[in-house]
Amino acid sequence: MEKQFSEMIKNRRSIRSFSGERIPDEIIQGILDLAAYAPSSWGGHPVEFIVIRDRKVMRELARCKQMGAGPLGYGDAAIVPIIDKRNLELWVEDAAVVSTYILLAAEYYGVAACWIHMKDRRGHTNMAEDDIRELLGIPHYYGILNAVSLGMPKKPNEPRELAAKIHYDQY
Ligand SMILES: Cc1cc2nc3c(=O)[nH]c(=O)nc-3n(C[C@H](O)[C@H](O)[C@H](O)COP(=O)(O)O)c2cc1C
Q1: Ligand 1 atom nearest 71 alpha carbon
Q2: CA-proximal residue: ligand 1, atom 23 (nearest)
Q3: Neighbours of 65 (CB within 10 A)
Q4: What pLDDT, on the 0 to 100 scale, is given for residue 107?
Q5: Do the domain assignments include residue 164?
Q6: In a domain, 160, yes or no
Q7: CA of 169 to the centre of ligand 1 (A)
Q8: From CA 63, how far away is CA 18, in angstroms rounded?
Q9: What phi and psi values does residue 89 have, to the nearest 5 degrees?
């Protein structure tokens, strides 16, 4: 299932439907081992991960946000990156970079993944971050930007062509 770098980058998609097959624990560990190499502000590698495989907790996690969090509830696993944000001005950027690494590492291992945003989003009772903090027992000084839902894909991703607008030397 391991892929060439360019193929992996081009194939990665946000996938929200899964085959129901279990992701082996060692693959989840492999994804986290790669994500640990994400660059970080001040080089502190401050991100910690909460891995959720308990279906009941996953369903509750999906309910922590009003809209757009469904895959967290019906996927096979979820990862919540958390960062002790005391004295760490750039924690959002650090969480975003590490989450991107998770998405790419998941693609490398043939796992379907999707970023589910949490920061500044409404939950069912409070803000989504507050509900997650309560559900998972995360101390208040940790920042929560997002979660990543994971599952085995149902089918191969459709190829697509993407190109960014590029300006050389000046706008
Ligand atoms: C910052 C950010 C927030 C996102 N939030 C959600 C979300 O809350 N729920 C969701 O289903 N997808 C979410 N996504 C996934 C995007 O919808 C997806 O990346 C986009 O549609 C492009 O599709 P692609 O990832 O297949 O290229 C998010 C992606 C990013 C980068």
Answers
A1: 11
A2: 14
A3: 24
A4: 96
A5: no
A6: no
A7: 31
A8: 19
A9: -60, -35
Q: Which domain holds residue 12?
A: 5-151
Mutation probe of ligand 1 site: the residue of 115, 116, 120 with most atoms within 8 A of C-beta = 115
d(CA 68, ligand 1 centre) in Å: 9
Reply yes or no on whether the pLDDT at 2 is more than 70: no
Q: Can you tell me the mean pLDDT for 6-23?
A: 96
Kindly report the CATH number assigned to the domain that includes residue 112.
3.40.109.10
Q: Does residue 50 belong to any structural domain of this protein?
A: yes
Q: How many domains does the chain have?
A: 1
Residue 30 within a domain: yes
Tens digit of pLDDT for each residue in 73-110?
999 999 999 999 998 999 999 999 999 999 999 999 99
Confidence of residue 3 (pLDDT cuts 50, 70, 90): low
Model confidence at 159, in pLDDT bands (50, 70, 90)? confident
Rounded distance between C-alpha atoms, residue 47 and residue 34, angstroms: 13
Query: Model-level pTM?
Result: 0.96
